[in-house]
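Dear colleague,

Thank you for sharing your sequence with our group. We've completed the structure prediction you requested, and as agreed, I am returning the results in plain text so they can be pasted directly into your records. Please verify that the sequence below matches your submission; if there's any discrepancy, let me know and we will rerun it promptly.
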Amino acid sequence: MKQVRVEEAVGMVLCHDITRIVPGEFKGRAFHKGQRIQAEDIPLLKDLGKEHLYVYELKEGWIHEDDAARRIAMAAAGPGITLSDPAEGRVNLSASGPGLLKVDVEALLRINSVDEIVFSTLHTNQQVNAGRVVAGTRIIPLVTREANIAEVEKICRESAPVVSVRSFRPLQVGIVTTGSEVYSGRIEDKFGPVLKTKFAELGSCVMGQVLVADDVEKTVAAIHGFLDKGAGLVAVTGGMSVDPDDQTPAAIRAAGGEVVTYGAPTFPGAMFMLAYVKGVPVVGLPGCVMYYRASVFDLVVPRIVAGETLTRADIVAMGHGGLCAGCPDCRYPICPFGKNV
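Please find the predicted structure tokens below.
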């Protein structure tokens, strides 16, 4: 720390806060500790009666908090991320558009193991909207060794990107609703409206809905009908339990589906099925998707729409955090449901 004349302080880092008082109008901080003095600041400093300032001397090999945060953020950010300007030493990373947040958790752990570095994110694999802050970074002291930042940049090069947002693909979705009670008109279908809303939130469009009885051949024909029309995803609703009349899992298999899983370690949503028919994802959705704000649908389908090909290991990993707490006022995704990492 050293004392310099105000005119000589341009580009230097302030060691202390400076208060501004306008009687009857304002009293507060005009300049904050750690702020880098700019040429346009000199007149105001003079108006505040400052002739000298105490500033940090940034020796070679050291870096200021604003520059450090900017470099960390730039190194970690991938596609779909927008960076803020530094504010009090912190840079935020925000989603530049709607999509699926992806975080390299192992790389994140390595970054936070570097001395004096802080990097915090939302949970990976969640749906985010444009402008959502998904991560933030800064250093703890006002200045740090440049070697620390170089180490973070090295980790990011090895793991890039650490934080990204995958855009949702505008899929055409076919809905096949099974159940003799719905097909006959005895019970009104309520799955269709729910799924149309959910897929619209993911940027996808429902190309049509077909009602079929509890019949394997008719269900297979409906699935293939949507695939022949170019569907990028087929959702089959109803008939997912173990009742003898529930034929949906058998129909998905009979349609040629390569089954990834029948059953998911999530509540709600245990009776979920995922298969690929001719490379196109086909999901068997249990009834809970109609009634719960958050279910297995919200953990799996956004990842599919973002272009991921899920494996059984991906589904198995959902067990940790896959139990919905059943809160009276659901605030998903601002909750632990599905946060398995």
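Summary note from our side: The two ends are 43 Å apart (CA to CA).

Kind regards,
the structure core
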